[in-house]
């Protein structure tokens, strides 16, 4: 069983469209994250949720809206997509936050905006 | 910036050789973690070292932390072709509930 799963794995869309990426973890963790990896492999945190509560919002445009219906799911909705949104988006989870241990990452969702 | 630097950006070695990757940071950390990313895959945790620790081992991996120099290194001994991947250090900052900050990583290529 996949521990952290993201769908879709690939997403190709036009500028201006709205898209969503879904993430689910079956590890029983209480904290989930969205990271964005750019073409230079630089990995930047976007959001963090702990028990469905937003705890980190890292200066991300408000076109990005995370939603956590329960602590096992963290979805990312992006409105009015722009060329610069093209990247690989990673979902991750951990128990008790990164202070206590490791992050478990999904396989990534590669978003291409044309 | 909080990110610091990872060095080198790319490293190419022969199988059997050792690989050393370095990571520096600018502000105090609570812990530092190393991750590996194979091409097209997600990141996988390797080792976590806390600010009061100086060295940790895991199999062929050795991580050191020098808080006075604000730097860490990852040593992979007797490298294998399967070690080819990008290696990232992630620095933990205890604010806003905690943030794990990654850099651009070191791209390691191990030639058979």
Assembly state: heterodimer
Alpha carbon gap, first and last residue of chain B = 38 Å
Shape designation of chain A: globular
Instruction: Give the DSSP E fraction of chain B (strand runs of 2 or more residues).
Output: over 45%
Major sheet size, sense and barrel closure of chain B: 6 strands, mixed
Largest sheet data of chain A:
7 strands, mixed
Global outline of chain B: globular
Arithmetic mean pLDDT of chain B: 91
Q: How large, in whole angstroms, is the Cα Rg of chain A?
A: 13 Å
Number of strands of chain B: 11
- Give the DSSP E fraction of chain A (strand runs of 2 or more residues): over 45%
Rg calc of chain B: 14 Å
The most extensive interface between chains reads: A-B, 26 and 28 residues
Counting DSSP H or I runs of 4 or more residues, the number of helices of chain B is 0
Q: Overall mean pLDDT score of chain A? A: 92
């Amino acid at each position: 069983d996949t521990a952290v799963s993201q769908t879709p794995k690939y997403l190709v869309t036009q500028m201006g469209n709205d898209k969503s990426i879904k993430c689910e973890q079956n590890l029983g963790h209480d904290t989930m994250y969205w990271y964005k990896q750019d073409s230079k492999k630089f990995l930047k945190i976007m959001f963090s949720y702990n028990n469905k509560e937003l705890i980190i919002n890292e200066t991300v445009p408000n076109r990005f809206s995370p939603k956590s219906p329960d602590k096992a799911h963290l979805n990312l909705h992006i409105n009015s997509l722009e060329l610069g949104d093209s990247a690989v988006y990673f979902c991750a989870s951990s128990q008790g936050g990164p202070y206590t241990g490791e992050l478990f990452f999904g396989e990534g969702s590669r978003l291409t905006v044309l | 910036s909080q990110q610091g630097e990872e060095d080198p950006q790319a490293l190419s070695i022969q199988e059997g050789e050792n690989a050393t990757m370095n990571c520096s940071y600018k502000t105090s950390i609570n812990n530092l973690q190393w991750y590996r990313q194979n091409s097209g895959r997600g990141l996988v945790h390797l080792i976590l070292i806390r600010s009061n620790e100086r060295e940790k081992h895991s199999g062929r991996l050795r991580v050191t932390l020098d808080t006075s120099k604000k730097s860490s290194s990852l040593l992979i001994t007797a490298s294998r072709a399967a070690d080819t991947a990008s290696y990232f250090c992630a620095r933990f900052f205890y604010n806003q509930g905690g943030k794990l900050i990654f850099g651009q990583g070191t791209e390691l290529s191990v030639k058979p």
